[in-house]
Amino acid sequence: MMRQYELVEKVAAYKPELDEALLNRAYVYAMQKHGSQKRASGDPYFSHPLEVAAILTDMHLDEATVAVALLHDTIEDTDATRKEIDQLFGPKIGQLVEGLTKLKKLDLVSKKAAQAENLRKLLLAIADDIRVLLVKLADRLHNMRTLGPMAPEKRARIAQETMDIYAPLAGRMGMQDMRDELEQLSFRHLNLDAFETITARLAELKERHEGTIAAIERDLTAKLKENGIQASVSGRQKTAYSVFSKMQRKALSLEQLSDIFGFRVIVDSDEACYRTLGIVHRTWPMVPGRFKDYISTPKQNDYRSLHTTIVGPSRQRVELQIRTKDMHDVAEYGVAAHALYKDGETSGAVHLSKESNAYGWLRRTIELLASGDNPEEFLEHTKLELFQDQVFCFTPKGRLIALPRGATPIDFAYAVHSEVGDNCVGCKIDGRIMPVVTELANGDEVEIICAKGQIPPQAWENIAVTGKARAAIRRAARTQIRKQYSGIGQQILDRTFARAGKMYSREALKPLLGKLGHREIEDALAAVGRGELKPTDVLRAAFPDYQESRAARAAEKGEDEGWFNLRTAAGMIFRVPGRSKAKARTNGRAIPIRGAGEDMPVRFGPDGAVPGDRIVGIIDPGKGITIYPIQSPALTAYDDEPDRWVDVRWDLDEAMSERFPARIMLSAKNEPGSLAEIAETIAINDANIHNLSMISTAPDFTKMVIELEVWDIQHLTQTLRQLRAKPCVADVTRVNG
Ligand code: MN
Are β-strands 615-620 and 593-594 bridged in parallel, bridged antiparallel, or unpaired? Predict the structure, then answer.
């Protein structure tokens, strides 16, 4: 284990005026806090932060970063607190250590390769300082180096995560060595057989060709110089993992893969690329079929380079990539390189929304860090503000959902699936029930609570920030309203057809749709429900030779006088005098009740309600609002569902008289003409009979339920009084009155 003074000396070697006391304090504090804790290998736990610190000294980072490395596991794994660290080391270091603690929590979430890109973004969004990322990568590197003693499943999980998330992240940041080592270590744990086979083969080839590879590099550099070409030549043997992934990509066997040595030649102009190629081809024999000119014909992704493979003196193949610095940048950063270099150099706080730019910026930052004279100041003023406009949350199963900043669980639900959004009634964030309007934070685990048959409240449309959620909420509301109106339309048609003595079925509507000017049955029904399509037009379309009765015509015209057919529950038909009954009942829009939603169809419970009654509304998902008098026993069924209750009150327009339904129960003597007398009494009182059904028939009395339409409670009371006064009426009461 590295001693305290050794660590200080290592930093002092590249940073003479360092704050030694800070390093010493951090060393002692972390050592004491981790105390007797052990790693899986049995080593003292403190060896781990110490090694992480050592990795960072190799990258010549400032003492603050090295101190953070020493402290990086203290908040998570010991009784150390942010407050204590702030007091001992200052709030800046406290903030960095806390940043690492936050990142560590992410490791606990299951991850899938498919969402690796979003996980990398989440990491960048959470790490608000570049030092947090650097310590995190060094931490991961040391953990990968010492993965051996872990349980096999844990090893596999960590190796996979490293392969999917951290190695590519290091690559994007331009830390190629870090990337190579992370990949190699992961590869070894994920596929030991392949790793060993390829490593053995590479070692064998290396031994056989080492001398000649060095000779080629020497010769090439010298020849280019002779010809006046300024070039940087870098050669390396490919890693076992890069050989393996090439075998996978191109479906090659190990024997077919002989070009495991490669050189990259970077020159300063397109012309120099071709001149270099000429020199290479004059010096060594080329492998036929391997030459590619991606300069004159760039790849789809804008990649440009000359590729060729030559055969060296001991017949080994060597691959060469020849390109300019610009081409190299494009190869490394992708197309974003163009934009980056047009901007010129920028430093300090940079906010880039495009991801490729963000990675490019990150990489240049690391480059500046590596070459900078004053890394401390640079680090202090470099804020990572990457992907701050996004927020990344998890489903309970570990799926990562990326949302715009400011998103709520409503957006989350719709991002998971529009059905989940439509049925969302609540949510849990990190296991706690929270309001669905809570603003989500990075790393939140969100569980959506669903209930079938819900309608998203229209108010959500303004809360949602994602277009997907907004559109879905609007669509659900529209569908719902159409459904409500088509339900009403269906009822109206049922009655209209029944009155005409005709059979009605939805199917029978199908061939009529063209005639009625609608494409779908639901649309036609909704049009009837909204009053845009007359039910009798539908009837006439279905039965062109149907002759309307006088009553039906009267009903349609809304005439006050006339006779109606009344069908009883037993199927008897009476002709009774009365006013239009089609008028007040059926039109969902017309019932003037305040408190009901604008687009919510309102209907009455089976016993009706009349002005003067105290009323309450019950929301019926899929149907609208049902109005009950407050004394109605039916309401007890909703006692446990307080969310369904709405406060409503009458909102009558004096100028626009409306009728309202009320149900009465009546016992009448079985005498000839008694039913006619009852009907007449009701008619004289200006109360409509909407329906009449016989409940029981004893030899002397008939009990019946009559649905009336009245102006208000006084009108109802007066009608009841008049009925009671009739000798044929034994008893009459309002049902549930
Ligand atoms: Mn650690």
Answer: unpaired
